[in-house]
Amino acid sequence: MSTRAESPEFETLSLGRVDDHVTIVRLNRPSFSNALNTQMGLDLVRYFEDVALDGRGLRCIVLTGAGDKAFCAGGDLKERRGMTDEAWTRQHVIFERMVRALIDCPVPIIGAVNGAAYGGGCEIAACCDFLYAAETARFALTEVTLGIMPGGGGTQTLPRAVGERRAKELILTGKPFSAAQAHAWGLVNEVFPPSDLLREALATASRIARNAPIGVRQAKLSIHRGLQSSLRDGLALEIEAYNRMVPTEDRREGVLAFNEKRPPDFKGR
Question: Is 253 a catalytic residue?
């Protein structure tokens, strides 16, 4: 599937619009294994906050790494060498905002983990709505081996994906794990040969993009927030989200298209 480059306004991200509704976002520092530096944090904040403010017809995002070796090798420790405590804290505030921008993005994000996802890279992956991974991908949260701990959501997103006990084992040891293990434990949805990864991720993105965009966004919100609530509160949230669909053109189009035995043409209205 061909892509067309979007305006090169980000130093550390490469954007490629697949069609009117799907974009590939690549973490683009391949000579540094796509390590997360301050600029990448700023670029991710700006891109995903811009999407939240104005999606410009976007219905699904595929997030991956440039090159074939790394998704993101984690925080750029060369940049951090010699940082003062104050500078470290200022930088981390950017990363905290980045995590929230990813998690709160109303447009579904499919992570296509094409290589190493270590430390902050694993945390970025875990912020996605779901993950596909290459067979060669590796994961780790190595922060405790460096005198710190996960601070990009890892202590919250990983247990929600793999369970408390497995997350404690992985975070407290810092040991790496394979794509196959990530799949078996529930962090990764599917594992593919490296040559098939992006094609499969884009196929799923296109399938999501064909669905009613308001419905998809409201369903994403309902799932995410509902899991942080009691069942009773989650059910109330679901109905609130559902009622948002009733007066839409897309709801009427979906029923009409079904009865006319044709694919629906959803407009996001």
Answer: no
